[in-house]
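Write out the 3D structure for:
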Amino acid sequence: MFAIFPFHCQPTLRPAMLLLFGLLFWPLTVYANGPYSGSTTHWTVMACSGPESQVQLLHDSRKIYEQDRPTFVITHGMGGTTTDDRFLHLADAIGDAIAECSVLIVDWSKQSRHTGWFGLPNPFAVAAKIDSVALEASSLLKAIKMEPHRTTFVGESFGNCVNAQVDKTLGGQGRILAFNPANEAGGYTTPDLTACSDRA
């Protein structure tokens, strides 16, 4: 299943999808007042390729990851993720709304931050790293025996490009929920997301 917005989904998943939509598109004024309330320090590294790894899988350390459960994989875009930001709170919201699911975060923050002249963000430098990030993320997800057919990939901007490549590598069996997909002006040609899954 592919959707840009969370309303085109199974009725049983709509509450969680509405939470996704609200947290990803919260008014920018909220950010000006600081991070969301509540701690997200329970999100810890579950898997990485080594001490110099540029990609990490985060999970909720209060729960045991179970591969036979419905799984949500959240992938941020350019700029990365930090403690108490919207992606971690989104992960918490999904876990709270769907108690029987597992939630993972693909953290590629080190690779998703690059500045050019005058300290301005350089999306082209970040875009050049997407394929290698997706390959590493795929390997990590395989290593923990994640079952693609039980998985919903949730992405924002360049995170959708990573998710599309990961899903393709893993056999195109997952669902993709794409928010704010990046366009070619950012330096990366976003795949046809509806063709990346067998549930398009």
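Residues 16 and 94 are 6 Å apart (CA to CA).
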